[in-house]
Every structure is written in C-alpha cells, then in structure tokens.
C-alpha cells in the first residue's frame, strides 16, 4: 500500500473497518452454530447496526490508547450523511468504531480487534435489553 493510515480519510478507514467487522460477525455467528441464512442475516443485523456499534465503542473508550482515541475522533468528526433509521450522533459514533477497526486492520493489530470484538456479544445483549425496555413504555 502506497499510503499510510495517517494519510487516509477517516471514511476510508471506516469503509475497511466495516468490511472487517462484518466478516468477523459472520464468522462468529457460524462458530456459535447458526446455519440458516435467514437466521444468520437476522442476528448479524443486531451486531452491525449503528446503535450497537456506538454502544460497543462507548464501552471500549476507557481502554483505548491515545492514538486509538485520535482515530476515533477523526471518525466521529467526519462529515457524511446518515440513514433515516438512526440519528446523526449514533451514526457518527458507529463510523468512529468502524474507522478504529480499519486502523487496527491496517496496522495489523489483531489482538486489539479480538479484544474489542469479544465485547460485541455483551453490547448486542445490552442493546436488546434497552430496546425491550423502550418498547414496554
């Protein structure tokens, strides 16, 4: 690669991070025993939705290095659109998470990705609990 991660646009890092995280989620779900494509897709969306990624990032923040925090800030402050299904702040935090994953991929920090991704199950379950409580109101 001719350019270093520092020279890349944060959205480019997020683009890569999105693909890396999606691949991990799909592999993880297969390892958990999901086999039907319909089930795989349904459960995968719980992991990759912006609100879950934003919540996952929030849990990671206290443990991030200074450089990782800078990558997150670059990702969060990037200008771009957002889908109607989520608010701007949540979407920017999800983009920041994806940029962080892209940074880890480019710098070959697999241990950091494993550490973060291992917390994804808890983030998904917590997100489901919050949604269930909101629906009860």
From TrEMBL:
It comes from the Bacteria. Residues 12-108 form the RNase III domain. SUPFAM superfamilies: RNase III domain-like. Its EC number is 3.1.26.-. GO terms for cellular component: cytoplasm. One of its GO terms (molecular function) is ribonuclease III activity. It is an enzyme of class 3 (hydrolase). One of its GO terms (biological process) is rRNA processing. Its cofactor is Mg(2+). The active site is at 18. Transmembrane segments: none annotated. It is found in: Cytoplasm. Pfam families: Ribonuclease_3. Keywords: Cytoplasm, Endonuclease, Hydrolase, Magnesium, Nuclease, Ribosome biogenesis, RNA-binding, rRNA processing, rRNA-binding. Homodimer. Involved in correct processing of both the 5' and 3' ends of 23S rRNA precursor. Processes 30S rRNA precursor transcript even in absence of ribonuclease 3 (Rnc); Rnc processes 30S rRNA into smaller rRNA precursors. Belongs to the MrnC RNase family. This is Mini-ribonuclease 3.
């Amino acid at each position: 690669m001719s350019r270093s991660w520092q020279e890349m646009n944060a959205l480019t890092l997020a683009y890569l991070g999105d693909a890396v995280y999606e691949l991990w989620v799909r592999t993880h779900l297969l390892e958990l025993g999901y086999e039907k494509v319909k089930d795989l897709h349904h459960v995968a969306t719980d992991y990759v939705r912006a609100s879950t990624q934003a919540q996952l990032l929030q849990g990671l923040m206290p443990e991030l290095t200074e450089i990782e925090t800078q990558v997150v800030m670059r990702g969060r402050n990037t200008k771009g659109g957002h889908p109607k299904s989520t608010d701007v702040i949540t979407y920017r935090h999800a983009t920041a998470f994806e940029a962080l994953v892209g940074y880890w991929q480019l710098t070959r920090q697999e241990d950091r990705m494993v550490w973060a991704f291992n917390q994804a199950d808890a983030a998904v379950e917590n997100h489901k609990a919050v949604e269930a409580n909101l629906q009860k109101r």
